[in-house]
Amino acid sequence: MPLKKGDYVILFHDGKRYLVNLKEDIFHTHKGTLDLSQIEGKEYGEVVFSSKGEKFYLLKPTLFDFLMKLRRETQIIYPKDIGYIIVKLGIREGMKIIECGCGSGALTTALAFFVGDSGKVISYEKEERFIEIARENLKRLNLEKRVIFKHKEVFSVFDEEEVCALFLDVKEPWNLIPAAHKALKGGHPLGILVPTTNQVSLVLKALSEYPFVEIEVLEILLRPYKTNPERLRPEDQMVAHTGYLIFAKKVFEK
Ligand SMILES: C[S@@+](CC[C@H](N)C(=O)[O-])C[C@H]1O[C@@H](n2cnc3c(N)ncnc32)[C@H](O)[C@@H]1O
């Protein structure tokens, strides 16, 4: 399908990816400027040339690209962790889920993507300015209608009950374990991300006081490789730590 004004494209050059919207006129890079109107009518997979004669490939952005290029004003959850969270929480079309701590909306975006038009993400956030940033990030994928933002600091209770999954990305998630237990459907999953091991210990202590089973703690290490087939080896640098993930399922008795 030919590309048109308003479409998103990845401009790929020399290993670098730029996410652009064709509603803009000009895009500047250190390899020259690109007149974006010349892209309209082309197809993903084709090429364009910058003012310096450099070749840029037109690639179709995936959810990964939108997550990596979103506007961020808080720490975000990265795709390597999001992928596992989505699978562990069993996120799919039609689910009603709660997240607490929407921040810049990286996880919100992925949750909204997978719950489909018939699902809902209820996202609690205490800072109004982050809700606005998250909303803008969701708009790029037309996902804002799938999210209900609640501008409030959660202390002891969520407004909803019988939700299919619940995720906490807040500084002190151990305080919200009773609220999470009350809001979840029986047998359904809770996920939590914390950056330090002492926070993990506090969460584990809180979980032990409520009926939760199948408790797991893990971290995900992603190790990219240089793609030279003659000298195949890992990249020299990697992101060594993002956060610890904790998962558990609600039951009715200990
Ligand atoms: C690290 S950010 C969340 C990032 C987000 N998961 C993402 O992927 O972009 C944590 C957010 O939790 C919010 N927060 C912390 N405690 C909260 C609470 N008790 N109720 C609501 N929001 C809270 C903070 O304002 C902050 O924006």
Automatic annotation (TrEMBL):
<dbReference type="GO" id="GO:0160107">
    <property type="term" value="F:tRNA (adenine(58)-N1)-methyltransferase activity"/>
</dbReference>
<feature type="binding site">
    <location>
        <position position="169"/>
    </location>
    <ligand>
        <name>S-adenosyl-L-methionine</name>
    </ligand>
</feature>
<dbReference type="InterPro" id="IPR014816">
    <property type="entry name" value="tRNA_MeTrfase_Gcd14"/>
</dbReference>
<feature type="binding site">
    <location>
        <position position="125"/>
    </location>
    <ligand>
        <name>S-adenosyl-L-methionine</name>
    </ligand>
</feature>
<dbReference type="GO" id="GO:0031515">
    <property type="term" value="C:tRNA (m1A) methyltransferase complex"/>
</dbReference>
<dbReference type="InterPro" id="IPR049470">
    <property type="entry name" value="TRM61_C"/>
</dbReference>
<keyword id="KW-0489">Methyltransferase</keyword>
<comment type="similarity">
    <text>Belongs to the class I-like SAM-binding methyltransferase superfamily. TRM61 family.</text>
</comment>
<keyword id="KW-0808">Transferase</keyword>
<keyword id="KW-0819">tRNA processing</keyword>
<keyword id="KW-0949">S-adenosyl-L-methionine</keyword>
<protein>
    <recommendedName>
        <fullName>tRNA (adenine(58)-N(1))-methyltransferase TrmI</fullName>
        <ecNumber>2.1.1.220</ecNumber>
    </recommendedName>
</protein>
<feature type="binding site">
    <location>
        <begin position="104"/>
        <end position="107"/>
    </location>
    <ligand>
        <name>S-adenosyl-L-methionine</name>
    </ligand>
</feature>
<dbReference type="InterPro" id="IPR029063">
    <property type="entry name" value="SAM-dependent_MTases_sf"/>
</dbReference>
<feature type="domain" description="tRNA (adenine(58)-N(1))-methyltransferase catalytic subunit TRM61 C-terminal">
    <location>
        <begin position="57"/>
        <end position="232"/>
    </location>
</feature>
<dbReference type="Pfam" id="PF08704">
    <property type="entry name" value="GCD14"/>
</dbReference>
<comment type="subunit">
    <text>Homotetramer composed of a dimer of dimers.</text>
</comment>
<comment type="function">
    <text>Catalyzes the S-adenosyl-L-methionine-dependent formation of N(1)-methyladenine at position 58 (m1A58) in tRNA.</text>
</comment>
<dbReference type="GO" id="GO:0030488">
    <property type="term" value="P:tRNA methylation"/>
</dbReference>
